[in-house]
Amino acid sequence: MKTNLDALLTALYVHLDDHVLRSADRPRRRGPARTLNDAELVCVAIAQVLLGCDSERRWLRTAPARIGHLFPRLPGQSEYNRHLRDAAPVLSAASMWLVRQTPSWHDRLRLMDGTPLRCGASRTTVHRSALGEIAGYGMDKSHHAFYWGAKLMLITTPEGAVCSFSVAHPKELDERKQAIHLLHTRPPAPGPCPIVCDKGFAGAEVEKTAAGLGHLLIRPVRQDEPEPPVKVFPAWLRQRIEAVIWTLKNQLGLERHAARTTGGLWTRLCQRICALNAVIWHNWLIGAPVKRSLIAYDH
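The chain above was modelled as a monomer; its predicted structure follows.
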């Protein structure tokens, strides 16, 4: 397990520092120099997720023993927290580069689904949190329960690598409006492709928008449709994106994000998605089976 993680972090750092987050291109900033450059920070943040350390304080106590042989210079807690909070664009850029390096990026098929991202379970948390601009009360139809949080939208490849994602207020943007916004702002594929989704994306506006961009929405047939667009729905494909959502929330700790600000929530989301894409990318690199992608890095 340790050897596999060392290989992933080493390969990831080399590729990021050479192609994505070059140290020589990093602009100078005021104040003392940071202990880690951007490529090193991404690797340390991914190691935190893969080793199951949801708390950054606990991670900095554990990191010297787990990855100290790879990163002998680790920052203190305050510096790591500040650097990580500002690293959302870097983590997002790294995750998008990683998914484009996998062969499945060129597959002409995508999966799309939305899921609640809970941010609090008590009224005290709602009032004290600084997530008011992105979080609100919504309905989790899968579990028939209300929640307070945000709505996460994902578009993935068939093997589970995240191509594009967004977070929105559950009342201001429903699934269809959020899907339209995501398709416009973050193209999920090199060109037009079919997108498998569920019944929640049924609607003339979203289907017209997707068709205008060249995408065909494939979803289950509704009972009130006189002429269903697709007579046979690949239900087994829906299970794949459900597995991706479960992996992000449970195995990679997104359900336990403990964010109290909008920036903190976005950073933690980018950190988990970058870890997921890094593992899938590394499996392609070494020829490992996809089903072993995350289990190999557990405790």
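The beta strands are 110-120, 136-140, 145-156, 162-168, 194-196, 216-218.
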